[in-house]
Amino acid sequence: MATTPLAIKAYTAANDLLNASQSISGLKNTKEATTSFSQTLSDSLGKVNALQQDNMRMIEEFASGKSQNVHELMITLQKAGLAMDMTSAVRNKVMQAYQELMRIQF
């Protein structure tokens, strides 16, 4: 059985997430943590954007007849949708935390 490029991408993404979580746990000061958080956030948003672009490319290829692989198209659609849902959930949690901080009286 051959390994598909999609499976390789999934394995690479999982490995990147594991490496990122290990590097975050090893940080020693807040400056590194702040830089790492902003870099992680930027990288994550870039990955979500790449998934959305890949999604649009796959839809265009399927609609134009270049690709007939419905299975990969559906997987790409689900991955992009899940990534966007997770991004929205993280954004909502950050907004809730911000609103809670704004309610604190000093």
Keywords:
mainly alpha, 85% helix, elongated
Structure description:
The structure is a single chain. The protein contains 3 helices and no strands. Helix content is 85%, strand content 0%. The mean pLDDT is 81. It has 106 residues and is mainly alpha-helical. It has helices at 5-25, 30-64, 70-103. It has one domain.
The amount of beta strand, in percent, is under 5%
- Give the biggest beta sheet: none
Number of helices: 3
The count of domains is 1
Write the layout of secondary structure elements.
Layout: H1 5-25, H2 30-64, H3 70-103
Helix pairs in contact: 2-3
Task: Summarize, please.
Helices cover 85% and strands 0% of the residues.
